[in-house]
Amino acid sequence: MKNTKHIDIVGAGIAGLTTALAVTQRGHTVRIFEQSPALEEIGAGLQLSPNATRILQSLGLTDELADVWYEPDHLQLVSGLSLKTLARLPVGITARDRWKAPYAVIHRAKLQDVLLNACRRHGSIAFEFGKQIDKPAQDAADATVGADGVWSSLRRIVPGSAEPRFSGYAAWRATLPIAELPPSFSRTDVTALLGPGAHLVIYRIGPDTMNLVATIPEHASEKGWNFRGDASRLLSAFSRWRQSIGPVLAKAEWRHWPIYEVGDASWRSDDNTILIGDAAHAMAPHAAQGAAMAIEDAFELASWLDRTDMETRTALLGFEAQRRPRIQRVRQRGWLNKFAYQAIGPFRLGRDIVFTLRGGEKLLTDLDWLYGYEAGSSGK
Ligand SMILES: Cc1cc2nc3c(=O)[nH]c(=O)nc-3n(C[C@H](O)[C@H](O)[C@H](O)COP(=O)(O)OP(=O)(O)OC[C@H]3O[C@@H](n4cnc5c(N)ncnc54)[C@H](O)[C@@H]3O)c2cc1C
3-class DSSP state for residue 177? Predict the structure, then answer.
């Protein structure tokens, strides 16, 4: 017989809202606590690879997302010094054929809106906005999900959890009207310009808007997502790059955030609190998997919580054991990307040769384990 569970979720970000939808889809009830009085429109672009879009589609969000996301034709790897294309990985139709789900890019606020609206349509999801939570509620739920981001408060009550560490990098982001991007830059691809010492990713996130994210070494270590910064620091990181890039960067109005990571440590406490998403394993955006891992966590967790053949505690142990190796592999992929994308000296030359010789089609096969992953099996 089905046993309806009640789940408390702390944080209405991508991880928290996706968990709410996945858990209620399986017939359980949810209460979400969010510290902000209303969800903020802060943020810019997110990449959603097929391992994540497959889940969003199975939550019934296909039509709404199709109106607000873009499916790029290719992932392009370009030398920042010469502007020569090193490799073009086809996504677009190829992603749908190969991984049975789209590769998409979207504004974070649009994704959050679609998730929030879907939650609001659902009778079994209650919201409490403006409520900052630092421990599970007294009227205990079957489980409390800490989806409260990299600066998680719930993490403090999880024995053996890790504190966030500054990565030594900052992500600078800006949006630019499409008309202001020189014609030599693609409007329909995700373009990663690879440097020595920095990299810059450009893709479309609105009918007339391109999203730019530059990752550069940084000393500052403030907490937050939305700092105005002295863009001359950013421009100097790109000063050796092809001259046509400088004017593009100079046109944009930049915000930056120092990148923090949460290393491999415990996510669970004996009172059935479980951390997911950035609260559990915030990672630098070099593999563009932060949101995707939050979405996978949410779907996988719902599948474990739905198990009728085990207690909640055992289900949470199962979830942690299943997710940990995958998160570790994705994290390592991010480190490898960072090394390659920002390589200097002979490593940069080696990188350019390897990408050129391997070519886009072969590079796709290196991504099958990542993009072809189907979450939600709960070990059954
Ligand atoms: C404002 C903002 C802007 C961002 N912009 C970008 C971007 O442009 N590009 C990008 O790649 N990534 C961005 N991110 C990060 C990205 O959303 C995450 O890396 C990824 O989606 C994982 O999400 P998450 O749900 O685990 O955490 P988050 O997206 O950080 O969500 C955590 C949520 O928990 C809430 N919260 C925190 N503490 C408490 C508490 N004690 N009680 C109740 N609620 C709490 C927060 O207000 C937030 O809504 C942004 C995150 C935030 C919060």
Answer: strand
